[in-house]
Amino acid sequence: MKSLENTFKKRLLAGETLIGLWSSLCSPIAAEALADAGFDWLLFDSEHSPVEVAGLYPLLQAAASGSAEAIVRPAWNDKVLIKRVLDIGAQTILVPFVQNAAEARAAVAATRYPPEGIRGVAGSTRASRYGRAKDYFRVANREVCLLVQIETGEALEALGEIAAVDGVDGVFIGPSDLAASLGHLGNPGHEDVQRALREAVDQLRLLGKPAGILATSPEDARRYRDWGYQFVAAGVDLGLLVKAADRLSAQMA
Ligand SMILES: O=C(O)C(=O)C[C@H](O)[C@@H](O)CO
């Protein structure tokens, strides 16, 4: 038995634009249903949802049969959390709150087995197909896709050095946190924030590093895609559910 190829990474590095959905629901039923909704990727967020590593496991299992590639956002740039998320079979991870090149290098090291990094070794995990993937240790480092998240003005200042870190495959800009950091909490649509988002993608394009972002409306998602963001979450599952429920109840009022 062979290791699974990371097709998200392959497509991203080939320059494809990949449209995804952000998942905060922490529901294996929702994960299974959404994984076949036609998105290229589905991100399970354990930073801003109540799911822990044990709860991520059934989400990854549920999404595995679908056409969307699973991505996990660990709660923090923490080598233990990253190791545990990789062990349960996530191949692509989005590491939040990376502020400078040193933090980006720490994230890279956490995702790599020695000698390239410091990831701890487990014999039988979902990642190694329970030890049956004979090529696993040979290809594991290569198949990890590391996306790092920029969330502050300080991190934007360091964008060039973060993007240049070997092993960083893509840079995701978090509009909500960036808005807060730039003094516009709750208003990522503010012109200062939008200008910063546009300048960030322009800079990343010049550096040849894929840029990602989260939108909460199709209009925003299309605009970000048109600006050159290459992996774009077009919405959040919980938000979609709430909007649809509110609309239905209003129609019945
Ligand atoms: O800054 C952002 O934007 C994010 O990090 C995404 C948020 O955590 C949130 O909107 C996800 O539901």
Q: Could you characterize what this model shows?
A:
This protein is α/β, with parallel strands linked by helices and 253 residues long. The protein contains 12 helices and 8 strands. The protein has helices at 7-13, 28-34, 53-63, 79-87, 101-111, 136-143, 153-157, 159-163, 175-181, 191-207, 218-227, 237-251, and strands at residues 18-23, 41-45, 69-73, 92-95, 145-150, 170-173, 211-214, 231-236. Strands 1-2-3-4-5-6-7-8 form an 8-stranded parallel β-barrel, surrounded by 7 helices. Strand 7, helix 11 (218-227) and strand 8 form a beta-alpha-beta unit. It is globular and about 55 Å long. The termini are far apart. The model has no long low-confidence stretch (mean pLDDT 98). The structure holds ligand LXDSK4UY. The ligand O=C(O)C(=O)C[C@H](O)[C@@H](O)CO is lined by residues 22, 24, 45, 48, 151, 174-177, 214, 236.
Can I get a quick summary?
By secondary structure, the chain is an alpha/beta fold. The protein has helices at 7-13, 28-34, 53-63, 79-87, 101-111, 136-143, 153-157, 159-163, 175-181, 191-207, 218-227, 237-251, and strands at residues 18-23, 41-45, 69-73, 92-95, 145-150, 170-173, 211-214, 231-236. It is globular and about 55 Å long.
Record keyword descriptors for this entry.
253 residues, alpha/beta, 8 strands, 44% helix, binds the ligand O=C(O)C(=O)C[C@H](O)[C@@H](O)CO, lyase activity, lyase, Aldolase/citrate-lyase_domain, HpcH-HpaI_aldolase
Bound molecules: the ligand O=C(O)C(=O)C[C@H](O)[C@@H](O)CO
User: Could you give the order of strands across the largest sheet?
Assistant: 1-2-3-4-5-6-7-8
Number of strands: 8
Taking pLDDT < 50 over at least 5 consecutive residues as the criterion, the unreliable ranges are none
Q: Main sheet, how many strands, which sense, barrel?
A: 8 strands, parallel, barrel
Q: What's the mean pLDDT score? A: 98
Tell me the fraction of residues in β-strands, as a range: 15-25%
- The total count of helices amounts to 12
Helix content: 40-55%
Rg from C-alpha positions? 18 Å
Q: What order do the helices and strands follow?
A: HEHEHEHEHHEHHEHHEHEH
- Overall geometric form: globular
Cα(first) to Cα(last) distance is 56 Å
The SS-based structural class is alpha/beta
GO molecular function, one term: lyase activity
Catalytic activity: D-glyceraldehyde + pyruvate = 2-dehydro-3-deoxy-L-galactonate
Pfam families: HpcH_HpaI
Domain HpcH/HpaI aldolase/citrate lyase: 19-243
